[in-house]
Amino acid sequence: MADVNHPLDDGLPTGGPASAVSSWAELEGLAAGPLPSLRNLFEDDATRGARLSIECADLWIDLSRQHLTDEVLGHLHDLARQRRVLDTLTRVLNGDIVNGSEDRAAIHGALRIRDRKPSRPDVEAAFATFDQMVELATAMRAGAAMGATGHRITALVQLGIGGSHLGPALAVDALRHLAHPVLVIRFSPGVDADDLDEALLGLDPTSTLVVACSKSFTTIETLTALDGALAWLATGVGDRAIDHVLAVTAAPDRARDYGIREDQTFEIPIAVGGRFSVGSAVGLPVMVAIGPEAFDQFLTGMHAVDSLSATLPVEENPAVLLALVDVWNHCHLGRGSVAVVPYTHRLRLFIAWLQQLSMESLGKRVCHDGTDPETATGAVIWGATGTDAQHTFFQFLHQGTDVVPVDLIGVARPATDDPRARATSNLLITNLAGQADALAFGRTAEELRADGVPEVLVAHRTIPGNRPSTGILLGELTPSTLGQLMAIHENRTVATAALLGINPFDQWGVELGKQMAGDLADGSAPKSELLRRAQSLREN
After folding, report:
1. 360 is catalytic
2. Do 110-295 and 18-82+312-500 fall under one CATH topology?
């Protein structure tokens, strides 16, 4: 068994509380004092916008509207070095053991290195699975994939929850402008029969493949949905319904026990965590939707960011800098949530994907070494798309009593040359920039009076400003840039965990909830009053 206490095996204090290092106390001292005004910081430094912006592959990241001074940045850089964040990112990229509580590596990064000989047997096996995925995707896109009754397969429905759903669903939705013109790709993430019915609505069982995506192949939500999907398939193909089922799993034996053929089983390495799995066989719907070549571009974009995250010094490392800002805001300034606002409908599912990635990875109350982190860990992630958000919760962001950091994500060019798309794209970017300035600079009472606002309204219309935001810009939404955007947030999350000394790759709270639900379902645990009441309401 690997040493749970110290995944970095040289005994340095990187697996315990962050307060063990000197820079943490320095940052605490700075946080206790008055924060500088963002308005003043920009007035005093005309170069601030350019100086605190950084490129990462094809992404452009603006940190200038965060409460960062040179002194704060210096101590944050020291924190990253003292907590050996680059070592952790390098170990992840190399596929080393970093998940001490489960004695596992994290090899999702290795799956993205498509031009290098695999470094370990499980990566080699994953590459063989990629070949299997390419064969199926190519056949479906060419109209050569046939069902049990000889009908062309034109639809694929993936059953899966959490990491088996959120990443692929995001990628398919975001890149739908590249989707095959005939094929239908849908997802059913839950156990709710209505959810499955919606996913299957209008499809023909004779032309549909169902993908049961479960790492353990014991996920009750997925297997319950699979039972329902098999019944639906049987209405079209009879006793050959199972021939229309694919399995994506790290437990191929369980899939075969269920009756799914070996040649229709796509294996996931056990060392790929669910929320980091979109670049594995979990991404099969993505490859079918956009094609193998575009899927390779997606992986290449992810790898480009992985490489930069593991090699750039902390002062120039976008993933590390984003993580440092998160720690500064949450742990030192007490800002317990982050609003994520993509200014494009194509990234509407990014928020849910990021919620799982961040909150499942960072929602921990124990360090690697079993001690108390002695600080806040994961922040609450929430949000909505662009102008919708402006007309729902932005009033709270501008004039509410809580200070909430905001991540503003924009795409400079639309996916098509349609004039309407260009016009709306320009409007979205203008709104993004305007909100960033409004959050940072606000509107003073003096400015309002100068504009002739009646005194009785001045207090109501004063906007305090000094609200932090980060801007993230993509030139265009392509498979590569989407991969980059997702990878930098993965690495941001891993870097944050390294700063705090916690394990981002396990989820024992999730496992407990599943276990207790199972105990209630099989009668091995006493019924709660909540369950008794629900059963009574159902029966009556």
Report:
1. yes
2. yes
